[in-house]
Design brief:
With 137 residues, this protein is mainly alpha-helical. It is built from five helices and no strands.
C-alpha cells in the first residue's frame, strides 16, 4: 500500500512538473512574439527610437542611420529564423526518410517551432522518433 502511494505521489509530482515546464515554454513563446511584434510592426510605440537615443550619436544623420540599421537588423534576424526553421525541417525529414524512421509530421512541426523560437536545440526534438524506433527493436 505504501509503495502505491509513493508511486502515486511521484506521478502527480511529475505531472505538475511537466505542466510547469510547458507553461514556461508557452510564456517564452509569447514573450518572443510580442517583443518581435513591438520591435517591428508598431509605429506608435517607437522602441527603435528609444534604443537609438541610448547609443552615442555624432549628429542627427548618424542617429537616423542608427534607427534604420536597427530596424533592418531586426528584420534580418527574423528572416534568418525562418530560414533556419525551414532548413531544420528539411534536414530532419530527409534523415527520417533515409533511415526509414516511422515518424509523424508532428515531430517536424515541433522541430520547426523550436528552430523558429530559439528555446532549445531542434536536435533534441529530432531524437524522439529515433529513441522510439530503437526502443521497439
Amino acid at each position: 500500500m505504501k509503495q502505491m502511494s509513493v508511486f502515486l505521489m511521484n506521478s502527480v509530482n511529475l505531472f505538475f512538473y511537466f505542466l510547469i515546464q510547458i507553461s514556461n515554454v508557452l510564456f517564452y513563446v509569447l514573450v518572443y512574439f510580442f517583443s518581435l511584434f513591438y520591435l517591428t510592426a508598431r509605429d506608435d510605440v517607437d522602441i527603435i527610437h528609444w534604443i537609438s537615443s541610448i547609443l552615442p550619436e555624432v549628429n542627427e544623420n548618424h542617429k537616423k542611420w542608427n534607427e534604420e540599421t536597427l530596424k533592418r537588423n531586426i528584420q534580418e534576424i527574423f528572416l534568418s529564423s525562418f530560414k533556419v526553421a525551414f532548413f531544420s525541417a528539411l534536414t530532419f525529414w530527409i534523415v527520417f526518410e533515409i533511415f526509414q524512421i516511422k515518424y509523424s509530421f508532428v515531430y517536424i512541426f515541433f522541430i520547426v517551432l523550436v528552430s523558429f523560437i530559439p528555446i532549445c536545440s531542434p536536435w533534441w526534438i529530432g531524437f524522439i522518433p529515433f529513441g522510439l524506433q530503437i526502443s521497439k527493436c
